[in-house]
Design brief:
mainly alpha; Arc Repressor Mutant, subunit A
Length: 145
């Protein structure tokens, strides 16, 4: 049992990816902190900007979020005036879009994001980034099968 526990502690890919995710997220969050914005929220703003009218199911799929996480973030972002609800056709989903304030915030956030992006790329390196893209492609293909 001890060998198995040590092996899990030393080799678990999930634990290592989660730790890396937390470290990288902290770099982006620190860069965006002066704007009172988190990278998770910025990605929702970006999704809304790209989609025009963002449908929650599409945003969840694009950002690999569960519906409750998206809903919680969108509610907070609406309260801050960054997003607004758009009347949906079926009344069940609540599409949303950027407000003018959300658009201005996104514009102000881009330089901070770029700085964090550069820092992260420098830390993890080009080889890792290429391998990450390949792994994400494989995961996407296997999910489609």
């Amino acid at each position: 049992m001890r060998v198995t526990v040590d092996r899990v502690a030393c080799e678990c890919v999930a634990v290592r990816l989660r730790a890396l995710n937390r470290c990288i997220t902290n770099i982006y969050d620190e860069a965006l902190r002066p704007l009172d914005l988190k990278v998770s929220q910025m990605n929702i703003l970006v999704a809304a900007a790209r989609m025009g009218t963002a449908r929650p199911a599409q945003v969840c799929e694009q950002l690999h979020l569960d519906a409750s996480t998206l809903s919680r973030n969108v509610d907070r972002m609406k309260a801050r005036g960054w997003l607004e609800t758009v009347a949906g056709e079926d009344g069940r989903s609540q599409p949303f879009r950027l407000t003018a304030e959300g658009s201005r915030l996104l514009e102000r956030a881009i330089p901070a994001w770029s700085k964090a992006q550069h820092q992260v790329k420098k830390i993890v390196g080009t080889t890792f980034l290429n391998q990450l893209e390949q792994a994400l492609d494989r995961v996407g293909r296997s999910a489609a099968d």
